Amino acid sequence: MASRGLSLGILNDAMAAIKASSALDPGTNPRLCLFPLRLGVDAQPPQPPVSTVPVTIHNFPTLEPVHLEHWSVQHLYLPLRRDILHHAVVYEGDKTRQGSASSKTRWEVHGSHRKTVPQKGTGRARRGDRQSPLLRGGGKSFGPHPRDFSSKLNRKVYDKAWRTALSHRYRQGELIICGNAMNLGLPRDFVLAPDKVLRDGLRESYLEKYMRGVMDRLCLGRDYGRTLFVTSERRDVLFEAMGLVPSEGVALDMDDVDVKDLLQTGKVIMERAGLEELLRRHQSDLMSNVVVNGLVRPPPAMGERVLWR
């Protein structure tokens, strides 16, 4: 009897060991097949997050690539936030409203406030003075008055909306950065000849034809959604040429550009100096006022050249 009990105990221990080994076998346990264990040298180290993105710098007006730069993801690779962009566009639209519409009430209309007809005895409806809103030339009931339509938006939210708009155009491949000034050269005859010698409209017709040719050759015109040119300062010839072909695009100084302008056209061509200045103006959410050991955390770098011709 004792030997029989001992053999049963050994058998139970063996069955328990078999069950434990089968639980660790991926072939018999489906959970281990779905989530395999990575042990030893098979384990992959975690990859660091991406901190920079490549940006190609072009030459204007041929848009020939010149060199490659690395820019921070906090500047040109933010995720799309439609809510922030909506708040920024509404905020800019409210600021542009003049709110100067004004109408006169019955107490502001010039004239006598005497009752025009007797209250009773005429058989007609009751009528007050000539300033009544019911009469022609009278005051306006609940009419518009000068008011301020501007709304409020946190500066950090607005700055992030700027960089979100630029990041969206960069992700779509619709942001073109030019390293040189976006100037358009005129033929030597236009420069040397006085204005009185040139025929009326000759300069304008040349600029219009030249700009349409550039836009069509580079696929930037109306058929491709128009193009926005953003310069760091006013370029007279470029601004004049784009003013002659408004259906092909628009040229703006960086001080006149807002978030809505960056999202309207098919492509955005911007000078590198203008992009750097705009990012410097709109990075308040990336800067910290906390001082540690007399130092303040600096904002991300604007761009680092890594490859050039």
Mean pLDDT: 85
Strand order of the largest sheet: 5-4-6-3-1-2-9
In total, how many domains does the architecture comprise?
A: 2
* Separation, N- and C-terminal Cα atoms: 93 Å
The H/E string reads HHEEHHHEHHEHEHEHEEE
Q: How much helix is in the residues?
A: 25-40%
Overall CATH architecture of the largest domain = 3-Layer(aba) Sandwich
The chain-level structural class is alpha/beta
By DSSP, the count of extended strands is 9
- Tally of DSSP helical segments: 10
Shape: flat
CATH class of the largest domain: Alpha Beta
Radius of gyration over all CA atoms, rounded: 36 Å
Main sheet characteristics: 7 strands, mixed
Low-pLDDT stretches: none
The CATH topology of the largest domain: Ribosomal Protein L4, Chain: A
GO cellular component, one term: ribonucleoprotein complex
Region (Disordered): 96-148
InterPro entries: Ribosomal_uL4, Ribosomal_uL4-like, Ribosomal_uL4_dom_sf
GO molecular function: structural constituent of ribosome
Supply database-style keywords.
2 domains; Ribosomal Protein L4, Chain: A; single chain; alpha/beta; 7-stranded mixed beta sheet; 10 helices
Explain what you see.
The protein is flat and about 125 Å long. The protein has 2 domains: 198 residues, Ribosomal Protein L4, Chain: A, CATH 3.40.1370; 49 residues, no CATH class. A hairpin with a 4-residue loop joins strand 1 and strand 2. Helix content is 35%, strand content 15%. Helix 4 crosses helix 5 and helix 7 crosses helix 8. The strands form 2 sheets. A 7-stranded mixed β-sheet has the order 5-4-6-3-1-2-9. It comes from Ophiocordyceps sinensis (strain Co18 / CGMCC 3.14243). It holds the Pfam family Ribosomal_L4. This is Large ribosomal subunit protein uL4m. GO terms for molecular function: structural constituent of ribosome.
